[in-house]
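Example record used in the benchmark description.
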Amino acid sequence: MEFLSNGWNVLLILLGFGALIFIHELGHYMAARWAGIRCEGFAVGMGPVLGAWRAGIGWRAGSTDPATIARFGKTAMEMDDDELARNGIGETEWSLRALPLGGYVKMLGQDDLDPTKVPGLTEQEKLWAAGSHGAAIVGFAIFAPLVIWLVFQ
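Model output (structure tokens):
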């Protein structure tokens, strides 16, 4: 484990892992948006929010929810699409979290105990929203050209 003896190498590993997580979760996000599902959160990492960005609110240390509540009296998740548009804020909070062990996309109506509870979708759209197809497509579209370039350079 000599490669972990240098702090720079550990940082590079964490950044590389973070990039893979981001690309994977971006596949889920794009599949959900394609299916017309509102995405309330996009996170790289787990645990406490280190920093977050929401359109119309900007960057914040921690979550954007306190700023949203201060300006509008409720969180963005409690607003419908018309309210979000009228107030000029985005539906998705993009966040970086403390533990670089994964990530997630929080979709409207998502209930991890019963994933069929996403409102107003067909069964096929729910499968796409689950994102395995979308994540695979995005991952392939990004990494296939990279691998081809590396192999044939």
